[in-house]
Design brief:
alpha/beta; Rossmann fold; Immunoglobulin-like; six-stranded parallel β-sheet; six-stranded mixed β-sheet; 22 helices; 29% helix; globular; binds beta-D-glucopyranose
């Protein structure tokens, strides 16, 4: 491979090298379109670039025939016949849509995540996509930030496990494995800490936060073999991530040994000028390439077209440019693109239609749901519903029968007809014997500022004409009154979450709370079903609604899975990957805060609101009940560099088979820095039959106790007493202690 790369490199002009380092969007929009607006590119811009070897990669092509056509242009039309690398945002599926990433994280089940992304990879590779801009591994502690939906939530330990599982799922055993694609963890680094939760805003993070919270998921993704990393849009502590040599070279390549290629986020190289960082596009190109940024993702007029000029002026060396080209060519060779650049369109159709993919999506949706509340109605928990005792069900709310909103954001190439909404899922499951009636109740809420994603066909948010607000609300309430149970489906519409979808409030958008209150007032038992990607303000609901099930955006098979859950074919077993705030004013609220002054007043930090979250991190109920007992440590004292085993007996004390996520938290009592009151350091999702007990064991090693310390500006591992807690959420009470020592084991 090395020889091949060097041969190509020595035959390429500087212009061709710059071309290899350019990735163009290819929307297939060559003209202004009334529905979409002005074309982001000049007509023919991409095709012209292909013809002169001016593009090494394209993104946003998902039609296999189009992939082949464009590939042919690159292979046959350019001097060296170098194939294109096709990238795309395969975030939670391509054709078969899985639950959104935050939902997959809520499954606390790496095997489910790995399987899901393997299916996504298989579909993507079949249509000619070689590389995904996923997983997004940005830690998100501010739910105002819309992109919280794309990640794994607040915690670095869970985030690292989720990141590694997804990389394994996308890539398989090695880069270039058949039916797999390159994974590109993003956005390196710190993007989730955008000021005020405003998307793209600047990020100011302490080194301790960066090393202990925001970087571990990236390190895990790199350790799992990720072939690509995408840089973030924003400045990290003042220096734009896209030309941040410390991040890209010192941390990523030198410290972590990353050998893959780097891509910028969209237009982020040009935007180094907008940041007030680079003087002009030539300076931007020189400084990005000089910082080791291999590929520029560009909509139009790439800055990297100025690389020859930058080399000529000495602003960047030809060696630096060659190093970038080498890494891009290596990726293409590893994928075998020089040998087989094209895809089989017939086979692509068959792969996309594979029923096994739908089944995997259904199971993932079952496993990611989180039961937040399940109070007794007439002497028994409201859920699961007993079909034998149901005559009629009212399925209410604006999201109950909306296919797009069942899928959530970051879906483009879907088959909407096959998407199962909550209404459809329940109708199919309950059959003729139960009357299922539906009403939206309220009209779709609208964004104050439209989304960039509205431009994609079919994405325009609906605002039905002639919608009579009062009459529709009354109709929904009537249906509730006449039903044995009302399932009210509320949350956020597809494009109220995701990129460019931050919010200043966490309230249910539009008149949804009013609908919920009116339905509850009928006295009919209510199940609140949430379609969401961020925590919403549920303060009223937790006081008045007996059952709340969070199904996130559950994907193609969402409605089927919801029916499986509501009717008790499976028990919910997911757990929250973030602390659920009571209101937006509490943000950020995380389980791993430090004790600080007067820790006994921790819950009284505000005078007008509790400081504890509404639901703690790791929380989720089940149709079963789990006891955790007999926490034992095999060592009470050990040298700092050694490990111990913590074991606990978990019993399913309920009368249904179900899953529990057993979680282990750790606290270092004292040291050269004050450590968080608790930090997640282990978890296992286990399936237990009714009445079954099992011993669950965790290794607690030095890697779980190490942290970056601002006093010494390095990683430390300290001798101290430690508390351990094990249980079903971050408030677990079952506890034990051990001590690490500088000396020998005792
Ligand atoms: C997003 C990236 C995404 C890219 C390509 C950007 O706006 O920040 O996450 O991969 O677009 O669609």
């Amino acid at each position: 491979m090395r020889t091949r790369v060097e041969e190509l490199l020595s035959a390429m002009t500087l212009e061709e090298k710059a071309g290899q380092l350019t990735q163009y969007f290819s929307f297939g929009l060559h003209e202004d379109d009334a529905a979409v607006g002005p074309s982001p590119q000049r007509p023919g811009e991409v095709e012209d670039a292909l013809a002169r070897g001016g593009a090494g990669s394209l993104l946003f092509v998902t039609d296999p025939a189009e992939t082949n056509r464009l590939q042919r242009r690159a292979v046959e039309g350019s001097r060296h016949g170098i194939p294109l690398l096709f990238g795309f945002d395969v975030i939670h599926g391509l054709r078969t849509i899985f639950p959104v990433p935050i939902a997959m994280a809520a499954s606390w089940d790496p095997a489910t995540m790995e399987r899901g992304q393997a299916v996504a990879a298989r579909e993507a590779r079949a249509v000619g996509i070689h590389w995904t801009f996923a997983p997004m591994v940005d830690v998100a502690r501010d739910p105002r930030w819309g992109r919280i939906v794309e990640g794994a939530g607040e915690d670095p330990h869970l985030g690292a496990a989720v990141a590694a599982a997804q990389v394994r799922g996308f890539q398989g055993e090695r880069l270039g494995a058949p039916e797999r694609i390159i994974a590109g963890p993003k956005h390196f680094a710190g993007y989730g800490a955008a000021l005020g939760g405003r998307d793209y805003d600047e990020v100011d993070l302490s080194d301790a936060q960066l090393w202990n919270v925001y970087l571990p998921p990236f390190e895990a993704a790199v350790a799992a073999g990720a072939g690509n990393v995408m840089t973030a849009y924003m400045p990290l502590n003042g220096v734009p991530a896209t030309a941040n040599r410390w991040l890209l070279v010192e941390v990523l390549r030198e410290q972590w040994g990353f050998e893959g290629f780097l891509v910028s986020d969209a237009n982020a190289v040009r935007n180094l000028v907008t940041h007030g960082f680079a003087a002009d596009p030539t300076d931007a190109a020189a400084r990005a390439a000089g910082a080791g940024l291999d590929l520029e993702m560009a909509m139009t007029d790439p800055a990297y077209a100025h690389l020859p000029e930058a080399v000529a002026s000495g602003a960047v060396s030809v060696e630096a440019v060659d190093a970038c080209v080498r890494r891009v060519l290596e990726a293409k060779l590893r994928l075998g693109l020089f040998e087989s650049p094209y895809v089989d369109e017939e086979r692509a159709r068959a792969v996309l239609a594979d029923p096994a993919h739908r089944e995997a999506a259904r199971e993932a949706a079952q496993r990611s749901a989180v039961l937040l509340r399940n109070e007794a109605v007439a002497g028994a928990p409201l859920l699961p519903l007993d079909p034998a005792r149901l005559g009629s069900v009212a399925v209410l709310g604006p999201l109950a029968d909306s296919r797009r909103d069942t899928l959530g954001p970051w879906v483009f190439d879907v088959d909407l007809d096959e998407t199962v909404t909550v209404l459809q899922g329940l109708r199919t499951r309950l059959g003729e014997a139960v009357q299922v009636r539906c009403a939206p109740g309220v009209r779709p809420a609208q964004r104050l500022f439209p989304s960039i994603f509205d431009a994609f066909p079919g994405n325009t948010p609906p605002d039905p004409e002639g919608f009579d607000d009062e009459a529709e609300l009354a109709r929904a309430v009537d249906l509730a009154r006449e039903a044995d149970v009302a399932v009210v489906v509320l949350g956020e519409w597809q494009h109220m979450i995701g990129e460019a979808a931050s919010r200043s409030s966490l309230e249910l958008p539009g008149r949804q709370l009013e609908l919920l209150q009116a339905v509850v007032a009928t006295g009919t038992p209510v199940v609140l079903l949430l379609l969401n990607g961020r925590p919403l303000d549920l303060r009223w609901a937790v006081e008045h609604v007996p059952a709340i099930l969070d199904v996130w955006y559950p994907g193609t098979q969402g409605g089927t899975a919801v029916a499986d859950l509501l009717l008790g074919d499976v028990s919910p077993g997911g757990k929250l990957p973030f602390s659920w705030p009571r209101s937006v004013g509490q943000v950020p609220v995380v389980h791993s805060h430090t004790a600080s002054h007067e820790p006994e007043n921790q819950a009284k930090r505000y005078w007008d609101e509790a400081s504890t979250p509404l639901f703690p991190f790791g929380f989720g109920l089940s149709y079963a009940r789990f006891d955790h007992a007999d926490l034992t440590l095999d060592r009470q004292s050990l040298p700092v560099g050694e490990s111990l085993t913590a074991s606990v007996t978990v019993t399913n004390a309920g009368d249904r088979d179900a899953d529990e996520v057993v979680q282990l938290y750790l606290h270092q009592r004292h040291g050269t820095a004050a450590r968080p009151v608790r930090e997640l350091k282990g978890f296992q999702r286990v399936h237990l039959r009714a009445g079954e007990s099992r011993t669950v064991a965790f290794t607690v090693g030095p890697e779980h106790r190490r942290y970056w310390n601002a006093a010494v500006r390095d990683v430390v591992l300290e001798a101290s007493p430690f508390d351990v807690w094990v249980g079903g959420d971050s408030t677990a009470q079952l506890t034990a202690t051990f001590t690490t020592t500088d000396g020998q084991a005792s």
